[in-house]
Backbone:
């Protein structure tokens, strides 16, 4: 019985990387066999399979994307997503200073709000509350729900038309919700333990976004069809800043920085940087999608990002140990 | 030493190792017993936790032993691990004191008042 059970365990351990198995498989199988013997079992259980598969996959992920790098990226992602969701809520969903705003988009209104995107914002706030309470599993659930809801809203996205004109707006805003979806997924790949990074990121983004909108309004609003800044949040932030071809130069710079971080043996920082770039790349790709003249940007961005991933993989192979200082953590 | 917050499974792994070096199966049994059956560690979870604790310098691998053709890997608590465990125990103790003090000051209400 022991040899067939041992074979079953060794077979399940294939979820772990080969190098890890060479060092730990015998010790792990030893514990598994003792536990099975203690319980009088002669076969592997379903929950054991799931547990080993989950930890094996996580170990494989760790080999490329370090746990600490993922944790840091998750903290940045929650801070960024929360700030964008809150600012979007204020200037696009609610607009309390424009009493007639809701009537301007009757096709998509959701109660007193411009559209059902307000539910996504609520889930981001719920994720923050759960994180503060250290309910990390609940925070992850809220983020996954927000991603699913964002996708559903994007699928059911509706245009807001004016007589004799094409669509003036699409509700909810596609780039914003693509960005929020990608940010929520990145926030799920790690555990948000770094509250300093979370707080600084959220405050910096809220001030940055609100400041950009207010300054833009101050200097340009009269030249853009007389519209107020809160009326074209997505146009100012995304179309004029993120969907421009020059973004690929920024991606190239990020690639160079991630290589430099690896050379400087700062693997966690490199992982966090590359993962944090992913949502913005997804958002830019969504903006470029369908635009014929953006194919070069699209392809270049994809090549650059693939190169960044290659850096992570090669770095994991040749520089498995990070010399960056350890930080306080929840274990 | 920096403060490290311990979650319950980790707390019982360290508590188990506080009484001396142990191998994986003993740690699982200890954690279940010490927690009154609340913490039932899966083997994959235990091993991942031990690896993480080793990386953080709270436990150390102290040797392997072959028993009946099976490998037993032994782990022990480091000085940093002992400090982290003591600090967590102090924190839990203080929290319990504060809770008991608040409960004692709680005005009698409902059934308790009528009794």
Residues:
């Amino acid at each position: 019985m022991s040899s067939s059970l041992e074979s079953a365990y060794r077979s399940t351990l294939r979820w772990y990387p080969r190098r890890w198995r060479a060092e730990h498989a015998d010790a792990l199988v030893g514990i598994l066999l003792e536990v099975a013997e203690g319980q009088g079992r002669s076969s592997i259980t379903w929950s054991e399979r799931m547990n080993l598969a989950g930890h094996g996959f996580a170990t494989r992920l760790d080999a490329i994307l370090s746990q600490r790098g993922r944790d840091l990226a998750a903290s940045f992602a929650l801070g960024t997503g929360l700030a964008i969701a809150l600012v979007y809520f204020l200037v696009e969903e609610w607009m309390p200073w424009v009493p007639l705003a809701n009537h301007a988009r009757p096709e998509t209104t959701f109660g007193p709000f411009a559209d059902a995107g307000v539910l996504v914002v609520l889930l981001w706030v719920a994720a923050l509350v759960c994180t503060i309470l250290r309910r990390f599993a609940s925070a992850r659930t809220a983020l996954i729900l927000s991603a699913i809801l964002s996708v559903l809203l994007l699928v059911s996205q509706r245009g807001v038309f004016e007589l004799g004109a094409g669509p003036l707006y699409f509700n909810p805003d596609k780039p914003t919700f693509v960005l929020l979806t990608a940010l929520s997924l990145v926030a799920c790949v790690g555990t948000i333990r770094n509250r300093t990074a979370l707080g600084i990121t959220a405050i910096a983004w809220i001030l940055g976004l609100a400041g950009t909108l207010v300054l833009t309004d101050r200097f340009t609003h009269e030249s853009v069809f007389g519209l107020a800044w809160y009326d074209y949040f997505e146009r100012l932030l995304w179309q004029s800043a993120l969907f421009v071809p020059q973004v690929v130069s920024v991606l190239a710079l990020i690639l160079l920085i991630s290589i430099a971080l690896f050379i400087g043996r700062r693997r966690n920082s490199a992982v966090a940087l590359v993962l944090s770039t992913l949502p913005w790349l997804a958002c830019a790709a969504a903006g470029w999608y369908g635009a014929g003249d953006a194919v070069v940007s699209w392809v270049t961005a994809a090549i650059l990002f693939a190169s960044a991933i290659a850096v992570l993989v090669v770095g994991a192979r040749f520089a498995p140990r990070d010399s960056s200082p350890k930080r306080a953590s929840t274990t | 030493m920096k403060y490290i917050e311990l979650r319950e499974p980790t707390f019982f792994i360290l508590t188990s190792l506080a009484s001396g070096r142990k191998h994986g199966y003993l740690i699982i049994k200890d954690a279940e017993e010490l927690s009154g059956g609340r913490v039932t560690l899966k083997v994959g979870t235990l091993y991942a936790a031990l690896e993480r604790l080793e990386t953080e310098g709270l436990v150390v691998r102290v040797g392997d032993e072959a028993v009946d053709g099976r490998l037993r890997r032994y782990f022990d608590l480091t000085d940093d691990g002992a400090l982290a465990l003591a600090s967590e125990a102090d924190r839990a103790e203080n929290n319990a004191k504060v809770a008991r003090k608040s409960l004692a000051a709680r005005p009698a209400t409902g059934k308790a008042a009528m009794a």
About this structure: Helices of chain B lie at 8-18, 24-34, 43-55, 79-104, 110-114. Chain B touches chain A at residues 2-7, 10, 23-25, 28-29, 42-49, 52-53, 56-58, 64, 70-73 (CB under 8 Å). Chain B is about 55% helix and 15% strand. Residues 95 and 101 of chain B are 10 Å apart (CA to CA).
